[in-house]
Amino acid sequence: MFKTDFFIYALGNILNVANLGLILFGVAAGIIIGALPGLSATMGVALLLPLTFGMRPESGIPMLIGLYCGAMYGGSISAVLLHTPGTSAAAATCVDGYPMARKGEAGLAIGYSLVGSFFGGIFSAFLLLFLAPPLANFSLLFGPAEYFTMALVGLTLIASLSSGSWIKGLMSGFLGILLSTVGLDVMSSVSRFTFGYMQLLDGMSLVVILIGVFSITQALVIFEESAEDEGKSQLATDAISGRILPTWSELVQYKNTILRSSLIGSFVGMVPGTGGDVACWLAYNEARRRSKNPELFGTGIPEGVLAPEAANNAVTGSAMIPTLALGIPGSSVTAILLSGLIFHGIRTGPRFITEYGGLTYTIILSMFVANIFMLFLGVLSAKAGMKIAKISVKILAPFIIVLSVIGSYSLGNSMFDVGLMFVFGLFGYVLRKFNFPVSPMVIGVILAQMAEYGLRQALMISRGNWLIFVQRPISLLFLVVCVLSLASAIRQDISKNAKTDTSPAQ
Amino acid sequence: MKQDRITFSYHKASIVLSLCFIIGAMYLYSITLRWKPGTHSTLPRLALTVIILLNIIMIVQQLRRHDETKSISFTKRSLRHLFAATVLTAIYIASIKVLGFYLSSLLFLIVMMFFVGAKGLMLTVGVPLVFTIVLYVVFGLFLRVNVPTGIF
Fold first, then answer.
1. Contact partners, residue A405, CB within 8 Å, separation at least 6
2. Pair A199, A421: CB distance under 8 Å
3. B152 vs chain A: nearest CA distance in angstroms?
4. Burial of A395 by CB count in 10 Å (0-12 exposed, 13-18 middle, 19+ buried)?
5. Nearest to A49 by CA among A173, A210, A177
6. Which candidate, A89, A394, A446, A23, places its Cα nearest to that of A265?
7. Can you give chain B as a three-state secondary structure string?
8. How far apart are CA A78 and CA B21, in angstroms?
9. A chain contacts of residue B85, beta-carbon cutoff 8 Å
10. Which residue in A166, A503, B2, B23 has the fewest CB atoms around it within 10 Å?
11. Domain ranges of chain A
12. How far is B9 from chain A (nearest CA, A)?
């Protein structure tokens, strides 16, 4: 239910000048990071996370949310100007954004992208405000058995829906679970997989893993790729001129597209494992399917920019719904946000909203503020987009490495963490080369805490009887969802293989 | 321009990687057998069993498909870049204890700027210097992170 007292407390928090400044900084950093092809929202949030350790979570997390929202929009700048999406969520924006820019409407294309992003973001923020608290109330019915099976649902959904093979997704998720078991077990005082390293007794910090697999891996990929495709990207125009924002009457004719795309993005965002990259294509295809002139899509029309951008920003708010209400991070970015909360000793999970109501509403309100700032900053910085898009990302890679080092060091003032982060960076690179999705691993680390607590408590209650997981109706329902999601992924895999086998040889 | 390429069979490399995961998981499983009995071993064993099973499935899939058309490919230049960046980063991390964080970061950034082909004194020295000063202000003064100071 909507809690007025928490809402007022959160409003006071958010309207604090320092917090507003931090959100503004986050949005600005997000737009720049998003606009640079090769730097993702996930990497940006992972790099900025250590900055929040010295802040209250009510200040630090909104800054990261600002970055998340800003990066989702920022990705469209290079999509429009370079035909290269700054983030994977802006891939569909290239299709019509770039032709618009080639026609001399680069500014207007960025403007449509900005307005679409704003409406999508605000729409999903409203959903978050009204859906997360009731869902959290429902989750109060859960006991240990449900915690375990819910974590399994999160993991199997993420694994089966993540890009590439479901086996690799699941494998990555269970690797994450295994990593989370390193360290001294608080219940039995047994040290697990520490290999005599005192530094591992407290376990591996999720932040160290995150920075390694997202930032160092990305820096290595940039070094590798920069050696191959120098000068590939071509700017669509020499300068951004003319108006940026579309008029109100222009926007009104696309109101259905904006609303539909926001709904698609919100729905996709709520499902763990799917994100802006899926939402943008779904919304784009739906906009084309319902258009009176589908043949115009791809030639540079505003609808083709509005649809994917409204959808990918609608993901930001709705992905926070399972994250805040159930403790299941829907994406790698929300997993990092959760790890920021965990660093501050906050227990995330189904009871988070009831135990930290003020913080929850602060996070929700920061979504609204971030989107408003994004609109203003987007208009002011649109013409500078050209300068951002011209920055060579390979120049930035060394700075990413230095920020990764100081970020992982500042966690516990330990060079051991820095070494571990580097090892995870190399490991992440190998996983990437073999098409293993990394997000399930990160989400696995977070879910493992809930899974292990649920598993052990449930087995203690049932005196070791594993049937407890099928005897409780909600737990049984979760297990059915697990089986169904895996079965559907296996079925898709089989039909894909059958198609490959029957296709004529090249 | 045609570049020399170094190519590995994706099929064979995937099998080798899966075998590494299986051997590693079996070794870790053997460690859990040495722990005193209790529920602390349930989740690690469950995760290790699933990892072993999934890798067996992946090997079977690779053997059935036997797709030799897929490959992991590098140009000699990209491999050199990757190797050099990895080694330089390792040296940078190792040098922090000796030279201190700020000095080693500055040197690393200057070397890397030359490495990535940045031109002009401003970009190769000026930007790293300003960035290091910003790091000092944010992490040293504002967040009060006690970074290693090295021998100086």
1. A418, A421, B92, B93, B96, B101, B105
2. no
3. 18
4. middle
5. A210
6. A89
7. CCCCEEEEEHHHHHHHHHHHHHHHHHHHHHHHCCCCCCHHHHHHHHHHHHHHHHHHHHHHHHHHHCCCCCEEEEEHHHHHHHHHHHHHHHHHHHHHHHHCHHHHHHHHHHHHHHHCCCCCHHHHHHHHHHHHHHHHHHHHHHCCCCCCCCCC
8. 39
9. 219-220, 223, 397
10. B2
11. 4-494
12. 11
C-alpha closest to that of A330 among A339, A319, A321, A341: A319
CA distance A348 to A354: 11
Paired with B72 in beta bridges are B8
Q: Residue A62: CA atoms inside 13 Å, Cβ hemisphere, count?
A: 34
How confident is the model over A74-132, as pLDDT tens digits? Answer: 888 888 887 777 777 888 888 898 888 888 888 889 999 999 999 999 999 999 888 88
Q: ipTM score of the complex?
A: 0.93
Asked if A448 lies within 8 A of B61 by C-beta distance, the reply is: no
Tokens at A84, concatenated: 């290269």
Q: What is the pLDDT of residues A407-441, one digit of tens each?
A: 899 888 899 999 999 999 999 999 988 988 888 88
Please judge whether A224 and B148 are an interchain contact, meaning their C-beta atoms are less than 8 angstroms apart: no
Q: Where are the domains of chain B?
A: 5-69, 76-142
CB A317 within 8 A of CB A124: yes
Whether A223 contacts chain B with CB within 8 A: yes
The rounded distance, in Å, linking the Cα atoms of B38 and A129 is: 42
User: Any idea which residue has 């125009």 for tokens?
Assistant: A237
Write down the pTM of the prediction.
0.83
SS (H, E, C) A181-212: CCEECCCCCCEECCCCCHHHCCCCCHHHHHHH
Q: What phi and psi, each to the nearest 5 degrees, are found at residue A184? A: -80, 125
Q: Which residues of B touch A417 (CB under 8 A)?
A: none
